[in-house]
Structure to design on (1271 residues):
């Protein structure tokens, strides 16, 4: 059975842009992330559960705006007041979510197929984001996340690491090719490698 | 040609790099670091173009952004750009340029006839002529004006360059790298602030490059170079040259245009030519300097008349002499600096000073150098047509009203200095209420509206010592406020020559009997006499005078003309200048290319595109796509050479006869969960929702508060507190915001979560009499019979191992089902449907066929839900609950909404059963009636009925319920059609709705 | 502070929707649905952060100068 990701036809491996004469470590690395579990978790207003009492894959649901609680497999992004986006490479976490978060307290919605995920790595990653998004990326640190627009498309941005920067940018699946074009176009002046 | 006006041992150009370029077809040489202007002047070229209205010869006036007329048509890398300032364009190998606004050549221009007709072409002539007779406008006047108008020629080729955008943030944005910019940047950066220093020109330093000053134990120039080197090494500083901050907007956002490649023969691959920066700064420091003010006298537009500071810049920066017999005409000490530079480089200038007995260090220096100075003297007129040959001068009385005997002085250029106009554009754009400073006779920034400070000459501070002190202080204070650091940099000792006051005099009176034209605006040919006419004709406001005379409206935006114009108006009106006020400053500070503003949003990518998971299948199968908002949807699947009409007819017929499949992924899907979910539905829909059983779908209509239908869709109860709502493609985003609004703002007590799942599920509509058979084969393990899956039923099942949702709902009016699978499996689902549907003669169908099917069934859609119709109009009154309150209910009671003859949707058939009726046509009783012909209604949607094989339309018509059977006319003035029609029921096909329930 | 293009304007925040199922006079209903003051100066209005957290907020903004004075959550009073 063939499942097809959003960028299957658009993302072609290779070196592009101004890459000649540059060491590969100087180039940006672009990849499409697939087969992730993406779940929206929303706590109902009337719920009396405290977030501290809940642990999913050993992670708390946190109240700090724009922050991510994470381990090597799972990242829980703050998406709004009492609203989280859980991203995991471990699909089993969905079972844990359904067991631990009761229907009466939480609205759980599986959004795993609704996003295109592009990962950008390299020292110029923030410069790429600055070309299309009005957020102040000078202030974006590890395990910060935010929702904004990139060239007119609503996106979620998750910063995983720095030195060099590693950032994931999510958009609605149908915008995938358009976002991919905008991102790779912005990478041309630096040179990039599609992995 | 040799560079006769180039000096050997002065200037900042690179004499190791010789550059060849062409002007008006002739090859010349210059050096790297030249502007086109400096290279042309070095080669003795002084005639650059012709003025806009009178076609008078024009030369160089300034050395930078203030240049009012030396503009050319530029050719670079097989592309051309009009109206490029020669004083800003850096020289590159192979540059080609031609003069504008002249024919056949700049030397002999036929347009100069206008100069002799100038008494018939005063200001405002555009408004007074070409009015009569009216019929002449299109054929005679307009083409003539079109040919006469304009300077350069716009290219009609596609612009192949890249232009990019960038958003950046900083603590301090400093516009200008003259002494005030450098000092404040340095002080702030040393104190830990994040600084962006933007310089318009390629070289940093501003006036420090041309003044004789010492800072500490270095020359001004050395000090500037060292500061810049240090700043470039600091990680918290971005230093940008060739970058102009051209606009100041709200909340301290400014825009800057970075020219990366205009100075190169070709843009480096993958690099942009220009980049637009959106900079949000906590604080802004405006160090934009000031522009020299011209003096106004007869024929002061003659090539060879130029700003004295420009003459000095050409000499010190480019090593070029603007003349070998210069006359300096000044009302202040600045002109002396230019004269001294000429003298030091072997040229003898003559100074005419309007003042009687000024005394200062700089005047002493000039005297020591034996420079000839005539006090209380003015230039009455420049002599020479294509170049200054001499100046007619005279002594002037103390009250500046009487001229003495006229005499002639031989000269080849007249360098004018009328003191300084601070460049306050950015401050004014930020909302700063500028004030008139009487001491310098110019406007300076006043009360700030936003976080901005103006320093140095831009603020009317003309001494270097005070400028540096203020700038170091500001840089420190502002950075301290932001970073809380306390590293203060002290201001160094400054050595500069002191000057004395200027003369409050700018416009030389005309001698008796002479009618010389005294120009204020050199590009638009606006003279003193034009301003006088405007005022005589009753124009009072400076905004009116500007527009009537076009003063300051040329490509130089009045940088050297506005203040003198203002001064003149106030003199004539006997007002003081601040009472007259200045015109509003609007961005951009100088012209910005459209490319820079557009960035990468070009062509296919001028807006984002949304594609369904099955998009590549559609592409491979010859789908012709249509834009549905930003989505691409297949309109029809083209077989062979068939037209849209043929293809969509084929597809629709096949649905009615066999089975078809349509990609309906784009329709909005909203997942609704929560204990109060049913209550929410009950409040937003017109019909009842509290008792919908699990596993059942229901059609719902949503209204706005004013009773107008907002959207329709089907909502299914998946489980007790879990619903799946669908919306139209167009309204998906609006409906989601609508629900969120009511949940967050109006009824926060409701416990409901709504989230869009449009993208989570790929959707295929399987429709037609054989759809049930197909569905059974797709899902062999479930009962898809009429009992197993009744109309408006819902089931979950596995589609060959893939989780699927099946909704028995129909938009086409045929027996139909919608299957949803998670998006990554969308293509798999579609291919399975096509494969298994083969035996049932399945064909994919697009939006055109989909439209046909629903129109002839009388199902309303977006064309009827156009923001003007209520449920009754759409024959949906049956869905309006009489028992409960809901959004929009209260408004339905409006008198117009319950009128007896209220409009309603009907069907329309042409009487000849052949002529298609254009959408938007008006329905009238009598086609021949006098205009205004009472309009009874309009055609909302048209199709070719595949059931009856004739055209069929839906229309909204007044008194719709009583119109069935009426014979009317459908009129389309746009398509020039008048069609006799008959009104029928909107439910043309299957009026009882039997097929969906079969 | 976020860029304006992440938000969508949503109307006058001082207008309170009449309760469901309660009697409302024609005049009061018309005022709720149609009539708005077009102020020059401080205006209390609704915005939705559509490209952000999807939250509705109330903002006090000067319609002439765009200066922002206050922002509160949707269900709070401004």
């Amino acid at each position: 059975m063939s499942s097809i990701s959003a960028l299957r036809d658009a993302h072609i491996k290779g070196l592009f842009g101004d890459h000649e004469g540059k060491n590969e470590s100087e180039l940006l690395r672009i990849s499409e992330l697939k087969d992730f579990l993406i779940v929206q978790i929303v706590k109902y207003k009337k719920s009396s559960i405290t977030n501290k009492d809940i642990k999913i894959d050993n992670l708390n649901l946190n109240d700090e705006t724009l922050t991510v609680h994470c381990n090597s497999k799972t990242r829980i992004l703050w998406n709004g007041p009492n609203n989280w986006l859980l991203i995991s490479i471990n699909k089993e976490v969905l079972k844990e979510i359904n067991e631990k978060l009761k229907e009466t307290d939480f609205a759980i919605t599986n959004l795993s197929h609704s996003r295109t995920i592009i990962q950008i790595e390299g020292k110029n990653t923030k410069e790429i984001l600055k070309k299309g998004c009005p957020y102040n990326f000078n202030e974006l640190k590890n395990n910060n996340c935010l929702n904004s627009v990139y060239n007119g498309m609503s996106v979620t941005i998750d910063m995983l690491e720095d030195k060099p920067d590693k950032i994931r940018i999510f958009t609605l699946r149908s915008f995938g090719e358009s976002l991919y074009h905008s991102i790779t176009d912005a990478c041309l002046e630096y040179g990039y490698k599609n992995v | 040609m040799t560079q006769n006006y180039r000096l050997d041992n002065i200037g900042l150009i690179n004499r190791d790099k010789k550059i060849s370029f062409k002007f008006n077809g002739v090859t010349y040489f210059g050096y790297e670091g030249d502007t086109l202007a400096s290279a042309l002047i070095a080669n003795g070229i002084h005639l650059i173009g012709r003025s806009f209205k009178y076609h008078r010869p024009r030369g160089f006036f300034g050395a930078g952004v203030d240049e009012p007329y030396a503009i050319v048509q530029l050719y670079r890398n097989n592309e051309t750009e009009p109206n490029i300032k020669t004083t800003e364009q850096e020289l590159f190998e192979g540059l080609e340029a031609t003069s504008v606004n002249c024919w056949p050549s700049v030397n002999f221009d036929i347009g100069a006839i206008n100069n002799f007709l100038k008494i018939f072409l005063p200001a405002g002539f555009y408004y007074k002529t070409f009015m009569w007779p009216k019929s002449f406008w299109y054929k005679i006047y307009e083409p003539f004006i079109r040919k006469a108008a304009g300077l350069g020629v716009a290219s009609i080729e596609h612009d192949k360059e890249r232009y990019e955008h960038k958003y950046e943030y900083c603590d301090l944005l400093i516009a200008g790298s003259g002494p005030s910019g450098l000092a404040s940047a340095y002080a702030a950066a040393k104190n830990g602030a994040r600084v962006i220093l933007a310089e318009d020109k390629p070289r940093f330093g501003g006036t420090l490059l041309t003044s004789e000053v010492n800072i500490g134990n270095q020359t001004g120039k050395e000090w500037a170079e060292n500061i810049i080197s240090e700043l470039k090494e600091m990680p918290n500083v971005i230093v940008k040259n060739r970058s102009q901050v051209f606009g100041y907007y709200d909340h301290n956002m400014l825009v800057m245009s970075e020219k990366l490649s205009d100075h190169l023969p070709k843009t480096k691959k993958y690099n942009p030519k220009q980049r637009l920066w959106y900079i949000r700064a906590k604080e802004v420091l405006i160090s934009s300097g000031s522009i020299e003010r011209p003096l106004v006298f007869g024929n002061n537009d003659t090539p060879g008349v130029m700003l004295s500071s420009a003459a000095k810049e050409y000499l010190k920066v480019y090593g070029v002499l603007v003349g070998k017999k210069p006359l300096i005409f000044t009302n202040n000490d600045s002109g002396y600096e230019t004269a001294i530079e000429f003298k030091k480089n072997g040229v003898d200038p003559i100074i005419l000073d309007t003042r009687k007995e000024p005394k200062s260090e700089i005047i002493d220096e000039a005297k020591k150098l034996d420079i000839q100075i005539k006090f209380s003297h003015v230039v009455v007129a420049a002599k020479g047509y294509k170049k200054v040959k001499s100046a007619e001068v005279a002594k002037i009385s103390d009250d500046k009203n009487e001229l003495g005997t006229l005499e002639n002085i031989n000269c080849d250029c007249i360098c004018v200095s009328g003191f300084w106009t601070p460049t306050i554009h950015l401050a004014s754009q930020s909302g700063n209420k500028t004030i008139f400073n009487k001491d310098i006779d110019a406007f300076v920034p006043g009360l700030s509206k936003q976080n901005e400070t103006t320093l140095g000459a831009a603020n009317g501070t003309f001494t270097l010592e005070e400028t540096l002190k203020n700038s170091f202080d500001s840089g420190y204070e502002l950075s301290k406020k932001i970073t809380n650091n306390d590293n203060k940099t002290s201001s160094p000792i400054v050595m500069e020559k002191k000057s004395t006051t200027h003369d409050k005099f700018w416009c030389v009176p005309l001698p008796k009997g002479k009618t010389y034209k005294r120009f204020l605006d050199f590009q638009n040919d606006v003279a003193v006499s034009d301003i006088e006419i405007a005022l005589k004709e009753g124009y009072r406001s400076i905004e009116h005078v500007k527009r009537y005379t076009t003063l300051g409206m040329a490509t130089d935006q009045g940088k050297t003309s506005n203040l003198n114009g203002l001064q003149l108006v106030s003199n004539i009106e006997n007002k003081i200048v601040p009472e007259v006020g200045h015109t509003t400053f609007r961005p951009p500070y100088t012209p910005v290319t459209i490319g820079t503003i557009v960035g990468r949003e070009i062509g296919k990518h001028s807006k984002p595109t949304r594609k369904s998971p099955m998009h590549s299948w559609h592409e491979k199968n010859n789908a012709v796509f249509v834009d549905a908002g930003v989505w691409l949807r297949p309109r029809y699947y083209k077989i062979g050479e068939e037209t849209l009409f043929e293809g969509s007819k084929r597809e629709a017929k096949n649905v009615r006869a066999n089975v078809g499949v349509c990609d309906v992924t784009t329709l909005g899907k909203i997942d609704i969960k929560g204990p109060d979910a049913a209550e929410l539905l009950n409040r937003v829909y017109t019909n009842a929702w509290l008792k919908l059983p699990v596993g059942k779908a229901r059609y719902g209509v949503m209204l706005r508060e004013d009773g107008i239908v907002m959207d329709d869709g089907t909502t299914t109860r998946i489980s007790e507190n879990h619903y799946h709502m669908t919306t139209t493609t167009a309204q998906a985003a609006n409906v989601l915001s609508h629900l969120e609004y009511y949940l967050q703002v109006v009824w926060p007590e409701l416990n409901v979560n709504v989230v869009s799942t449009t993208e989570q599920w790929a959707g295929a509509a399987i429709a037609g009499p054989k759809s049930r058979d197909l569905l059974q084969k797709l899902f062999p393990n479930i009962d898809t019979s009429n009992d197993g899956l009744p109309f408006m039923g819902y089931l979950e099942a596995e589609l060959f191992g893939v989780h699927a949702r099946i909704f028995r709902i129909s938009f086409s009016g045929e027996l139909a089902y919608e299957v949803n699978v998670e998006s990554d499996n969308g293509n798999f689902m579609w291919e399975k449907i096509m494969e298994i549907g083969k035996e049932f003669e399945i064909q994919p169908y697009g939006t055109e066929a989909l439209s046909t099917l629903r129109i002839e069934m009388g199902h309303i859609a977006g064309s009827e839900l156009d923001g003007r119709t209520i449920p009754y109009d759409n024959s949906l009154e049956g869905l309006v609950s009489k028992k409960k309150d809901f959004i929009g209910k209260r408004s339905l009671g409006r008198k117009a909404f319950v009128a007896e003859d209220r409009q309603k949707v009907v069907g329309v058939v042409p009487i000849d059963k052949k002529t298609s009726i254009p959408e938007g046509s008006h329905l009238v009783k009598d086609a021949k009636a006098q205009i205004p012909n009472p309009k009874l209604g309009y055609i909302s949607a048209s199709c070719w009925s595949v059931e009856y094989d004739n055209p069929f339309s839906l229309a909204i018509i007044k008194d719709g319920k009583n119109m069935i059977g009426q014979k009317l006319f459908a009129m389309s003035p746009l398509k020039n059609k008048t069609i006799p029609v008959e009104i029928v029921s909107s439910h043309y096909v299957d009026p009882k709705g039997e097929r969906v329930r079969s | 502070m976020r860029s304006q293009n992440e938000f969508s304007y949503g109307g006058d925040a001082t207008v309170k929707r009449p309760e469901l199922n309660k009697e409302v006079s024609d005049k009061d209903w018309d005022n709720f649905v149609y009539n708005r003051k077009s102020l020059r100066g401080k205006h209390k209005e609704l915005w939705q952060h559509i490209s952000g957290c999807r939250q509705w907020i109330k903002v006090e903004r000067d319609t002439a100068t765009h200066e922002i004075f206050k922002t509160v959550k949707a269900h709070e009073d401004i």
About this structure: The domain at 14-35+114-194 of chain A is CATH 3.30.1360.120 (Gyrase A; domain 2). Chain A has a mean pLDDT of 94. The interface with chain C takes residues 79-81, 83, 134-135, 146-149, 154-155 of chain A (CB under 8 Å). Residues 176-187 of chain A form the longest helix (12 residues).
